[in-house]
Known about the structure:
Shape: elongated
Radius of gyration: 35 Å
Largest sheet: 7 strands, antiparallel
Number of domains: 3
Oligomer: single chain
Strand content: 5-15%
Number of helices: 27
Structural class: alpha+beta
Distance between the termini: 122 Å
Number of strands: 7
Amino acid sequence: xxxxxxxxxxxxxxxxxxxxxxxxxxxxxxxxxxxxxxxxxxxxxxxxxxxxxxxxxxxxxxxxxxxxxxxxxxxxxxxxxxxxxxxxxxxxxxxxxxxxxxxxxxxxxxxxxxxxxxxxxxxxxxxxxxxxxxxxxxxxxxxxxxxxxxxxxxxxxxxxxxxxxxxxxxxxxxxxxxxxxxxxxxxxxxxxxxxxxxxxxxxxxxxxxxxxxxxxxxxxxxxxxxxxxxxxxxxxxxxxxxxxxxxxxxxxxxxxxxxxxxxxxxxxxxxxxxxxxxxxxxxxxxxxxxxxxxxxxxxxxxxxxxxxxxxxxxxxxxxxxxxxxxxxxxxxxxxxxxxxxxxxxxxxxxxxxxxxxxxxxxxxxxxxxxxxxxxxxxxxxxxxxxxxxxxxxxxxxxxxxxxxxxxxxxxxxxxxxxxxxxxxxxxxxxxxxxxxxxxxxxxxxxxxxxxxxxxxxxxxxxxxxxxxxxxxxxxxxxxxxxxxxxxxxxxxxxxxxxxxxxxxxxxxxxxxxxxxxxxxxxxxxxxxxxxxxxxxxxxxxxxxxxxxxxxxxxxxxxxxxxxxxxxxxxxxxxxxxxxxxxxxxxxxxxxxxxxxxxxxxxxxxxxxxxxxxxx
Length: 615
């Protein structure tokens, strides 16, 4: 039969009704046989015979492509027999392959191809991307792959990802065409899986522009869904989209994107949560210009709280791993925000050393290492707490019986001890100017041979790992000194003398609980230079605590003068009695000079105030 006769005999609506019927014997019906005859006629027709019929042929191609997607979607939702589906799809796919091959001979232009080729690509994507049970045995899957290969040659795309990138906007529209929201988010629905199958093949810069808004509109309902199977597909889609668009494009949707993620991360399925937190970290990185922490301030406390309250170890590993990513993003040269959250951050991390799960300990140590690097100006007061946590990890590796269920493998033990070495090495370098802490770390090193960062070889005489102890403390920024009122030489000498004398006074953590009214303290503050975006450590200042605002994490001080006088310091109230409020998270170092909290080094009993001595 000629092509025009077969086209006249083909009733697409009757074919649709036949194929969507539940009977498994539809391959023998007249409508299906007519489709097979059309494929044969198209293959045998001469070019001059086919040319006048191409408009009608392409109309039928688009109708058959839609019918292929409908059959696959109905089978996925209803669980029809795959052998019957194969019989239904093969004649239609043969028509599509024949038209693609004949179009290659005719060398159609790009404008003409865009009118019908996306329909063919969508149909083939539904066949080989639906991942139906037993699909690897279906002949139609092989035929769909052949059609895609022919389409690559027709469009001169080079490979399938390039082909999909070329027509991705049209294919995305066809994947979601005439699909209700309830069907779109349903577990059995194949449409969302096909969208993921298509989009994951396309990379930057083809997902931006107008397509970005359409993709997000299709993805957000999936992420909002409480069903894990649906939410996981939506999360993977969102992660791929965020990674392949520019920050400028993403900022147009920043508010709704962060709101969707804020709601979605309540899930406690480890795989889904990991992908969603990947989306969150990537979004915060792209949506936050350097030095801007507004979005981080919204999510950092949330993640720390969720980590602290989580009891599932697998989920907690996911949380801690992404907390590490946030610490790195907020680290140098903009470390002030990490320092703000240092107290709760260390509380969460140090609690992790109570675990006997190797993956959790490794993740905790890696995050702790990143925290020390990012917040080094404020790490010194926390050295003892961190050291206790590290020693707990060492004890986990060294003290438990080999036969215990939770005993780490040799590889896991080596990994944990290596990270413990790294953290101890960092602590030693952070406290290089504090002889008391350095001596303590040396004692620990001598008593724990596997944690000896200051020796050429470890306690067993074995050489350390290559390149492990070359200078790794590469601070990404330097301390910028403030301008002094006196001459440089005099100021430098005076500052050095004052620092040496203040070493004999007790220190304290910079928290509201460490201070009481009437305490006289010497302190340094850490602030951010708005010109260089570098942290600036001030000179030593002095003041008397007037009041402590614990909820606001601040103290009110009256300003005092501070001068070195031989082996001691002189401090007295300034005549003007100026008062200032100081945020405790801005204090980088503190010494207690006098007052209720003053205790001499090496003593536990309170030291009497100078006023009490006179009495």
